[in-house]
Amino acid sequence: MDIAALARTLRTAARRTNQRRLLVLAGPRDADLDAAFDAVAGADAPDDEVAFVTAREGFRFERVRPKHAGNLLGTTRTVVVCDAHEEFSPNVVGRLAGVVDGGGLFVLLTPPLDSWSETDGSFEESLAVPPFSRADVGGRFRARLAETLRTHPGVAVADLESGTVERDGADGGAAAGDEDVAIGDTDDADDTADADGRGHGRRPPTPPRTHSFPRAAYEACLTADQSRALSTLERLRGDGEAVVVEADRGRGKSSAAGLAAGSLAAAGKDVLVTAPGYGNAREAFVRSSALLAETGSLESHDEEAHVVRAVDSGRVRFAGAPTAATLPEDPDVVLVDEAAALPVRLLSSFLDAPSVGFFTTVHGYEGAGRGFSVRFRDRLAESDLSATDVRMDDPIRYARGDPVESWSFRALLLDARPAVDPLVADATPASTEYRALSKDELAGDDHLLHEAFGLLVLAHYRTEPDDLARLLDAPNLSVRALTHEGHVVSVALLAREGGLDAETRRSMYEGARVRGNMLPDVFTSQLRDEDAAVPVGYRVVRIATHHAARSSGLGSKLLAAIRAEKAAAAEGVDYLGVGYGATPELLDFWADNGYGTVHLSTTRNDTSGEYSALMLDPLTDAGRELRDRHAEWFLGRLSGVLADPLRDADPDVVRAAVRACGAVPPVDLSDREWRIVVGASFGPGMYVTAPDAFRRLALRALNDDDPPCTPGEERLLVRKVLQGRPWPDVADELGYHSPRNAMKALGDAYGSVVERYGADVDAAASERLRFEEK
Question: Binding site annotation covers 585?
């Protein structure tokens, strides 16, 4: 078996079509690595265009550890060798599949395919979360991966143990039978491709006849799609415009964003670029800086500060999404790269910008949450901005129909979608069936897997290939669903947590991180409850209902069915739980389904910008004891954290979180405190005389099922009394004419509070009577 000749044949086919080919070398690790050097030699690529992604050291080629494979995103190589023996994960494949250039070769080193599903690795070890062991981890994802490698076009498989070539992969993947497969001479490689293998004779697109952006920007475009997108982005020169650019990975949308940003800066615009991280947006800054330099408009490029300045006061600057959502320094234009990886709340904040461009990956490892295409589209349509859509389909680095791209989509389910709308649009709680979808059932039914995983993708702003493997193989995860006429219409991913032994609980209490037990970990390590990991719980990791059947009660039915199942479970489940980025709507949803607030995080999520809420729904006495003590502790510490780390929390989030808490804070004011509160409410007193008394009453008022205050008064209680914000800021935010008006409103609010909670208190009643008799 001549691996160099096989690689040479694949490279010839790849260059002829300007596509890529995938070569699988299946065998023991040392044999795989030796064969990889033969493959690189046969591929005839310069050393600096070859990358080995492996935990092993000692290569003359560029070597990147698998856990750092993301460093190659945005770059290209002619040959990428991926070692799947150690530190391998599905995310590594997702990252590397787009790095290989057109005409190049992706080499995957695997254990023998027949036994790959039984092979241990560091990723599989990571799935063995306590109390489970490695023996509990499945091999379904690896079996699925092996099956796709054996059947997908453009994939060659060489079995190093038997010395045979199972498939040659050069002509679309037909089976080769054995090592006698014809290995043709490759010296006559097709020369219609460009010298760097990218263009494959593709002519650069012609700039539009009329354009406002510099001609150099259009001359930098590599495809007609990119040129058309850039032309559409010219709309952002004026106010009131929104442009949505959709593309799969590798279509050049980030480059288009950079060319647009540079063009706008050259025209004097202040352009704010945001993304989940600067690394996602770096290409936009490289492109904008290069364009300004070419047109003589570049003043400076500060890479460390992430700012590109143009000579006529225009600039391109970066801010992380939570900060950018506040529109700092009033930008003229906002460009949101990898918009699909951001939650809807943040995306909606950008609609207040004068003009905004959204660049979103349709399928891809960076984040393909359908929240953008499903939920956010409604808000964009309702905004004051005029929206224009443009889609980019032509790949930049390789030709359409590339088999490596289509294989990665298939293997990693990057194109997973829920059922089409007409199949589930008339679903109701009465028409659906509750089902436990086993891992074997999901692995054996590709249609079912696509529908279930497609909905889970919809539920979260970022879903990665690793999540597919966890779904199929992690022993702590399980799937529950509602189906309508056989189609998944609502789905929940559950994680078993707790039930940990004393030694594990002790180590967690002392600072060790215990994977796969998010709620017990927070309760134990942060909230100092060493017994919190004794009860067994199931956390709802994600829940989603098909957008065509939303607001029909399906999510609530699914949660009720899960509760009934777990309450009757022989294994003994003590509680259900959930943790998520808190919004008023989500807090109300979970409270309506029986979950009570036990914690608000004191730091915002870096991507979503939300404070996280933890909520529990107890099923047993042990679960109720856990919920009750943490609900009581939550209310006890809330005044303190609202005055410091949660001082900027949304008052409606605070209102909803307190109301959803199962505990009731006591009203234990002294007679003197009651007199001070009554004096401030009905007389000349001031609340600053005894602020703690006012805080305790505020918490009780917010917690009441029959609130004594209006929603506006409750926001005033949160902002001023609990968060201690300055009067001018409170008056401005809540719409009072002046701080004095806000002060009067606070007195009126406490008048209602006194009537509710002080009517039977002698000190309060007598003090109030003094003022009412005057």
Answer: yes
Q: Are 368 and 463 in contact (CB under 8 A)?
A: yes
Nearest to 81 by CA among 46, 105, 48: 105
Q: What would you report as the CA-atom Rg of the chain, rounded to the nearest whole angstrom?
A: 30
* Contacts (Cβ under 8 Å, ≥6 apart) of 285: 258, 261, 273, 301, 303, 306, 308, 316, 318
Least confident of 183-192, 218-227, 484-493, 567-576: 183-192
What average pLDDT score do residues 130-134 get? 94
- Say whether 26 counts as a known binding-site residue: no
226 is in an annotated binding site: yes
DSSP letter at 524 equals I
Closest to 237 measured CA to CA, from 215, 202, 212, 218: 212
Give how far the C-alpha of residue 341 lies from the chain's centroid of Cα atoms, to the nearest Å. 5
DSSP 685: -
Check residue 197 and give its pLDDT.
37
AA letter at 66:
P
622 and 534 Cβ atoms separated by less than 8 Å = yes
Query: How far is the C-alpha of 619 from the C-alpha of 573, rounded, in Å?
Result: 7
235 marked as part of a ligand binding site: no
> In terms of Cα–Cα distance, which of 96, 55, 104 is closest to 79?
104
Length in residues, the chain:
774
Structural domains of the chain sorted by starting position, each given as residue range(s) with its CATH number in brackets:
3-167 (3.40.50.11040), 215-392 (3.40.50.300), 421-659 (3.40.630.30), 671-772 (no CATH)
Question: Which band of pLDDT confidence, cut at 50, 70 and 90, is reported for residue 198?
Answer: very low
Task: Tell me the C-alpha distance between 511 and 504, whole Å.
Answer: 11
What string of DSSP letters covers 354-420? SEEEEEEESS-TT---TIIIIIIHHHHHHSSSEEEEEEE-S-SSS-TT-HHHHHHHHHHTTT-----
Closest by CA position to 653, among listed 586, 577, 745, 727: 586
* Concatenated DSSP letters of 5-20: HHHHHHHHHHHHHT--
Of all residues in the chain, the percent with pLDDT exceeding 70 is 93
Please tell me the distance from the alpha carbon of residue 76 to that of residue 152, in angstroms, as a whole number.
23
Tokens of 647: 């001082």
* C-beta of residue 549 within 8 angstroms of C-beta of residue 425: yes
CA atoms within 13 A on the CB side of 562: 32
- Burial class of residue 430 (count of CB atoms within 10 Å of its CB; 0-12, 13-18, 19+): exposed
Residues 392, 247: contact at Cβ < 8 Å?
A: yes
Question: Model-level pTM?
Answer: 0.86
